[in-house]
Every structure is written in C-alpha cells, then in structure tokens.
Write a structure and sequence with these properties.
The protein is α+β, with helices and mostly antiparallel strands and 229 residues long. Helix content is 32%, strand content 23%. The strands form three sheets. Strands 1, 2, 3, 4, 10 and 11 form a six-stranded antiparallel β-sheet that branches. The chain has a three-stranded antiparallel β-sheet with strand order 6-8-7. Strands 5-9 form a two-stranded antiparallel ribbon. Strand 7 and strand 8 form a beta hairpin. The longest helix is centred in the first third of the chain and has 25 residues. It is elongated. It starts with 11 loop residues before the first helix and ends in a 13-residue tail after the last strand.
C-alpha cells in the first residue's frame, strides 16, 4: 500500500533552508527595486482582500512594485540605521514598517499616488471575528429573500424561523449583530445571505521617501479582519 504524502517526514533543516532562501529572495528583490524606482511609500491596510489587492497591484505594475512580507525582513533590506541604510534617509521608512504594512515603490508622480490611494476602497462581506459596522435586526414576519429550501439552514444559524405555506417566516424579531461587537460565524453567514457588506478594504499611505525628501503622512496600522496571504 503506497504511503500517504501527508505522512512523509520533513526534516527541520529543509524547512529552515527554504525559509532562509525566501527571506534572502525578498531582501534582494527589495534592494534591486530601490535602484529602479524613484520613490518609496509605506502603506497600511485594513480588511485585506488578496484578490482585490492583486487587481490594484496589476493596474500599476508597469510603473510600480508592491512588497508584502515580514516587516523585519523588509527592514533589513532597507537598513535600520545610518550605518546600514541602503540610501541616505531610508532608515526612516524602515521604522514605520510595523503591524499590517507593506512597501510601494514607484516612478509615478506623488500627486498620482496620493490620488490613487486616497480614492481606493473596496467593499466586501465581513468575516468571523471582525467588528460589526452597524446593528442589523430582522423583524418578525415573512423573509421573502429566502427560499423554502433554506429554512433548515437558517435554523442552524440560530434564526427562529418556520415555514408558513411555503414561505420562510421569522417568528420573532432577531438581532443578527450588534454594532462594534465581533461577528460570530453564524452572523457572518447570515450577513452574506442578506447581501450586507460591512468590510471595507483600504490602503492608507503612511510615508514617502525619495532621494530629495521624506514625508510622514497621517495614518497607521489597523489589525481588523486581515486575510492571511
């Protein structure tokens, strides 16, 4: 009987080697990009959505490059002090890489970058554990947006429903979520069924570095609803 691939032993030395290679690759890629692009920005993100981010990144790939990864590794690539910084003043960029942040290197004019980032917003369904943006309460009565086949599923989500002549009916008022409180798995599923999007994916500029100057913008990290990548 063939052995399952899942049960194969992986030596720790191999995983360590792979991790080291990935870190070195990121460091080298950032250092090469610094030589190619005129400006470096640090940005933070809220409610990261990988597909949405990829679309935004692809729109700018002809003039820019994004980096997401370990903040410490990105700091090493740029340098963290006067003695090891890659370019004069670039250590200031490193100091702002903490929390949910990334690097954006570009040849676009500053005005274009500010306009693109400030205008960027994508709405999506909130995930389990994220805080509800508002209170959602369903009133007693028929729920015409749901078909009768969904009645068992809705009951499993904790909703007090029944079928009345083939129509899903709420037998009492039901609070799906409370503003500011974390969403349960059931609440997140119900909001999705209702088509209510509470998560807003945003990219916030924190600073800009160029060989001529350095600007620190208002903004910072946010750790809400982040999708691991």
């Amino acid at each position: 009987m063939p052995k399952s691939k899942r049960n194969r032993a992986v030596t720790l030395s191999k995983t360590k080697k792979k991790g080291k290679e990935q870190k070195e690759s990121l460091v080298n890629a950032i250092r090469e990009a610094v030589e190619l692009y005129g400006s470096i920005y640090v940005f933070s993100f809220e409610n990261m959505r990988n597909l949405k981010f990829k679309e935004f990144r692809d729109q700018l790939k002809s003039s820019s490059r994004f980096f997401l990864g370990s903040n410490k590794v990105m700091q090493v690539a740029l340098g963290r002090s006067i003695g090891d910084e890659l370019r004069p003043g670039i250590r200031k960029v490193s100091k702002l890489l903490h929390g949910n942040t990334g690097l954006f290197l570009t040849n676009l004019p500053k005005e274009d970058v500010l306009r693109l980032f400030n205008a960027y917003e994508e709405y999506d369904f909130a995930r389990t554990g994220s805080n509800a943006a508002e209170k959602v309460e369903l009133k007693e009565g028929p729920l015409v947006e749901f078909t009768h086949e969904m009645e068992p599923f809705l009951r499993k989500q904790g909703m007090p429903v029944r079928l009345n002549k083939g129509v899903v009916e709420l037998v009492s008022d039901f609070v799906v979520c409370e503003e500011g409180k974390p969403l349960s798995p059931e609440s997140a599923r119900i909001l999705r069924l209702l088509g209510i999007k509470m998560a807003t994916f945003r990219l916030n500029l924190i600073c800009r570095w160029s060989p001529e100057d350095f600007e620190h913008y208002a903004g910072g990290e946010d750790d809400s609803d982040v999708e691991s990548s």
